């Protein structure tokens, strides 16, 4: 870690102070703002304490490097009103496989004559003031929101597959909502709207498939549990009931007095008939009750495995 002792000469403490901001990258104007003169900065540049990355942008020499260093340096050079956008923002959010060859920033149209600080920096301008929520702080950068980033990248003709992936992954991870996207595409060209709406539809289809799979698996599991319950109901010996009570009490301690486990204790206390009814009950309550217990007090492992094989084979669910 850079500290004042790692730097020599005048201004070493001030440079150490700058090192803690922006991963060791700072601008000449930031250095002047904390009292470093141009001559002091030039001295540290000559001695190798700092490295010049571009016009007016420097890096503390022994500060650990970061994969985001080019983006940090470009953002520092462009100033506070530069916003990471387009494919660079998509990469920052990690919602697609884009590998942009250029660093994308959006600036107010008033700064349209600004020169890009490096050859790999692409500047976009906008006349439209950003609405609240269109610009966010993400991973230490000011960036366009994910919804706006997707729309901007789509407008700039980023690969449609990458746009669809960004929509699906963003929605899956809760980084963007359908409403966010609908608002962002209001003024977008028809091509962009179709592309993003297609990504939304693909996400909905995937989620519907997953819900269907989960429902099918749940139903299969309950068929198995009901078959085990019916077998257990035929074997309610005093020893088996005592072993089952011990299991439920142990689970209660582990799961902080789960209400369904409490209900099982009440059922056990009411006797074998009540227990038999609960084990074979075909109602929703019976499904939930069976889902929180083990049948091993009444049914052997070989029998459980046999029932499991029968139902998974007939339902097409893989073990």
The ordered string of helix (H) and strand (E) elements is HEHHEEHEHEEEEHHHHHHHHH
Integer count of domains: 3
Query: Which consecutive residue ranges, at least 5 long each, have pLDDT under 50?
Result: 1-10, 213-218
Helical coverage, percent range: 55-70%
> Count of DSSP E strands?
8
Structure characterization notes:
With 319 residues, the chain is mainly alpha-helical. It folds into three domains: 4-65, Orthogonal Bundle (Arc Repressor Mutant, subunit A); 78-188, no CATH class; 209-315, no CATH class. The chain is 55% helix and 11% strand. It contains 14 helices and eight strands. Strands 1-3-2 form a three-stranded antiparallel β-sheet. Strands 4-5-6 form a three-stranded mixed β-sheet. α6 (146-155) crosses α9 (190-233), α7 crosses α9 and α9 runs antiparallel to α12 (272-280). The longest helix has 44 residues, at 190-233. Residues 1-10 and 213-218 have low confidence and may be disordered.
Key phrases:
319 residues, mainly alpha, 55% helix, 11% strand, disordered N terminus
């Amino acid at each position: 870690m850079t500290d004042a002792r790692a730097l020599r000469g005048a201004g070493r403490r001030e440079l150490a102070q700058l090192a803690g901001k922006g991963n060791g990258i700072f601008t000449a104007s930031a250095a002047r703002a904390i009292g470093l003169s141009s001559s002091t900065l030039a001295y540290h540049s000559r001695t190798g304490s700092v490295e010049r990355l571009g016009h007016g942008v420097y890096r503390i020499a022994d500060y650990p490097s970061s994969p985001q260093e080019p983006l940090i340096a470009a953002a520092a050079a462009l100033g506070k009103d530069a916003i990471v956008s387009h494919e660079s923002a998509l990469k920052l959010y990690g919602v697609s496989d884009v590998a942009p060859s250029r660093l994308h920033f959006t600036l107010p149209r008033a700064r349209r004559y600004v020169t890009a600080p490096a050859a790999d920096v692409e500047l976009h301008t906008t006349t439209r003031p950003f609405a609240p929520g269109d610009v966010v702080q993400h991973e230490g950068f000011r960036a366009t929101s994910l919804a706006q980033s997707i729309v901007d990248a789509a407008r700039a003709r980023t690969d449609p597959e990458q746009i669809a992936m960004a929509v699906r992954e963003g929605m899956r991870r809760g980084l963007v909502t359908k409403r966010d996207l609908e608002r962002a595409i209001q003024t977008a060209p028809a091509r962009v709207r179709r592309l993003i709406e297609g990504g939304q539809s693909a996400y909905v289809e995937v989620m519907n498939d997953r819900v269907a799979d989960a429902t099918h698996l749940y139903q299969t599991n309950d068929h198995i549990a009901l078959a085990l319950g019916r077998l257990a109901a035929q074997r309610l010996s005093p020893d088996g009931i005592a072993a089952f009570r011990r299991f439920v009490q142990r689970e209660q301690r582990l799961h902080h007095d789960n209400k369904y486990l409490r209900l099982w204790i009440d059922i056990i206390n009411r006797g074998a008939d009540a227990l038999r009814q609960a084990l074979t009950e075909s109602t929703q309550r019976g499904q939930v009750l069976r889902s929180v217990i083990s049948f091993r007090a009444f049914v052997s492992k070989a029998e459980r495995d046999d029932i499991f094989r029968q139902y998974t084979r007939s339902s097409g669910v893989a073990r």
